[in-house]
């Protein structure tokens, strides 16, 4: 039987150390840059968590195949549902994007979140 790691995982929400730099896969407006780091992976790679930052821009989200929990650490943004409902998010706001969510993000300046993802398929 494989040993289970039962130790608490802690990670810093401060300045990112050696972040992965990327761009939105589905950009809509702006020259958005993402910076992120994965801090945890478990359940055979089916669950993960980390920190993500975004500069200004507008980009589509598509959570096909996973559920995401997020918590805003810095900045502000809006997540817009496919029907046009706008969710203004600020520091301290938690949210969940259910499997298959296809809204979009609007970041005016900067936003930073902690995230947890669970694969569904």
TrEMBL record:
Query: Where in the numbering of this chain does the (S)-ureidoglycine aminohydrolase cupin domain appear?
Result: 43-114
One Pfam family assigned to this protein is Cupin_3
- List, alphabetically, the SUPFAM superfamilies matched: RmlC-like cupins (SSF51182)
Going by the entry's taxonomy, the superkingdom of the source organism is recorded as Bacteria
What InterPro entries does the record point to? RmlC-like_jellyroll, RmlC_Cupin_sf, UGlyAH_Cupin_dom
> Gene3D superfamilies this protein is in?
Jelly Rolls
Q: What is this protein called?
A: (S)-ureidoglycine aminohydrolase cupin domain-containing protein
């Amino acid at each position: 039987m494989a040993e289970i790691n039962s130790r608490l995982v802690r990670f810093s929400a401060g300045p990112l150390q050696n972040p992965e730099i990327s761009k939105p896969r589905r950009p809509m407006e702006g020259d958005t840059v993402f910076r992120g780091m994965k801090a945890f992976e478990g359940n055979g790679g089916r669950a993960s968590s980390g920190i993500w930052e975004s500069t200004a821009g507008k980009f589509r989200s598509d959570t096909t195949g996973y559920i995401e929990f997020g918590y805003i650490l810095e900045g502000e943004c809006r997540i817009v549902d496919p029907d046009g409902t706008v969710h203004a998010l600020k520091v301290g706001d938690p949210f969940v994007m259910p499997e298959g969510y296809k809204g979009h993000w609007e970041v005016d300046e900067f936003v930073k979140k902690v995230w947890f993802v669970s694969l569904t398929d």
